[in-house]
Amino acid sequence: MRALKIAGAAVAAVIVIAALLLIIGIPSGFLTSAIRERVERETGYQLNIAGATRIGLWPSLNVTLNDVTLEAPKDRDTSSRVTVGSVRADMTLSSVWSGHPQITELAIARPVLSVPLLRERVREPTPSSPRPPTSAGESGAHALAIDRVTVTDGAIEFSNLRDRFDTRIDGINAVASVGADRDIKVNGSARAGEHPLKFQIKATAPAPPVERQNIPVELTLEAAGLLQAPLTAKAEARLNGTAVMINGVTGTFGDGAFNGWASVDLASKPLVKLDLDFQRLDVATAQTPAGSGAQGSQGSPNTQASSEPHPWSNETIDLRGLNYVDVQARVSAAELNIGEAHLAPVAIDSALAQGVARIAFSNLGAYGGQANGQLIVDVSGGNPTYALTSDLIGVRALPLLRSVADFDKLDGKLQAKLAVRSAGSSQRAVMSNLSGTVFAVFKDGAIRGLNVVQMIRSLAASPLSGWPEAKEQATDLTQLSASFRIDKGQATTSDLNLVGPLVRVTGTGTVDLAAQTLAFQVEPKLVMTTEGQGRSSDPVGLGIPVMIDGPWADPRIYPDIAGITDNPDAAYAKLKEMGKGLFGGGGQSDQPLGGTLGETLGNLLQQGLGQSRSLPSQTQPNPPPAPQSDPPPPPSQDSQPMNDLLRQLFNR
């Protein structure tokens, strides 16, 4: 009886231990060496298993490996490797007994693929004893069948230790299933910085070996913040050594279709070649959220931009990644939208090598005109540099200036020549370091929302704060031209010239591109006839320079009184000349300054000087003015002398 009790206790202990082993797994360190040898023989890579290896029998036969590292043998660059937190393979017991394991699910947790980034392309050495090609029968006999693969919390890390540069794609979660007819379906998500990614891949794998065989592939990609619309594409991929050929590319990007071809050589530093043609291509920028599109980017003439311009951003623009890939590309599009900028049609040839990108464009359609030029971006050094040369012909100025600088006051056909360069890693730094030359001519347009004649009239009463808003009014211009010399973000001109049917303006000044401010001194002149360019009389100036300074969206406009008080006699002589030119021509007049107009201009000058200075003596002095019983009008009201002047100028 006692022996039976001991035997029963032993059996119970064995059952408990067996149950525990079924649940927690059987320690199987003896499998480690066999798995390592199989992987090295099949792939040529070295497998290290630092954690425990276990065999489980519940709920199905499974093998779990922990803390796994896969890397190339004799590779001193430890940045090229794969580390995995754990790998679990579930398989059927019958397939194991048959010698051809059928893995029903391969679960990979916390994998990290480390990819080294190289600045130079390195020719791979030719193997001294290349492995003979494997026949399809041999490959099929030794192939490991896998029905399903899951990846949890994976990452891809790109780094260059010498440059101290690294970037990651985190949060990779994917599920891949393989059908009996070798149809592969992959669904997953990831995160590139702050931008979420969603992807779906479908492919049909050919019978082994897959090299030099066409593989049909379908791709769907959503990248909010990077792409303004989902991307879907179909192509045929072919593996040829380290190169991947992608032919017959067709697909849609948002509402537009595209087609072309591409190739990627993954030996050492990647070399990407592509030729794509888009119906419509939308590119998001930092100030244009993805998904907003560029509808209405040209804008209607009545659309008003915000009175508060967007200041240049200090956020770092990191372009260092351009050092680690070479590109040869041609991209064409019937319509291209970059943020708020709209271009159509577009043909761009670009080359990227050793961190220097050269982008050439010719006959590029830009707002009813054309643009030609080249942009060079050099990120090979510590601070990126930029150089732009361009010719603009017949470009409509309003939508261009609105999209580039939030400025909507000027319209017309623009012709310009630009040769500028800069350096910096943010928008503000680029604008602050800008230098070069710009020549621009605007023809047959208007200064929108601004009546220059009324502005001159208002200046006699008080300075102006901001452009006088008159959305339904405009000042027509025949031509506006200026040449700018730019140094450290300061664009200076000495030949500003505006010609219109009723006004002429000349001036000099500086535009602070970084601070978005103006500092101009201009001299407006009223045209006394509407005969146009062939008029016989000269325009009449008021003799008072006008200052325009402050933010370019809301400047302060006021007469340069200091310039008059420095030389009042010269200002008086100017007024006298104006009076003779306007009324009486070269004849004599009994009243100084051409009668009542001269008196009006004299009063205007005295009001501008802010003092009771008497006019210089004349041959026939005017009688002293009668004392006024009414107090002078407050500064906020219109100037009566200026009102009288304008009534006489325009007979109203």
TrEMBL record:
It holds the Pfam family AsmA. Residues 2-118, 247-495 form the AsmA domain. Residues 621-636 have a biased composition (Pro residues). Residues 122-142, 288-313, 583-652 are annotated as: Disordered. InterPro entries: AsmA, AsmA-related. It comes from the Bacteria. GO terms for biological process: regulation of protein targeting to membrane. Residues 288-301, 589-620 have a biased composition (Low complexity). The chain crosses the membrane at residues 6-31. Keywords: Membrane, Transmembrane, Transmembrane helix. One of its GO terms (cellular component) is plasma membrane. PANTHER family: DUF748 DOMAIN-CONTAINING PROTEIN, PROTEIN ASMA. This is AsmA protein.
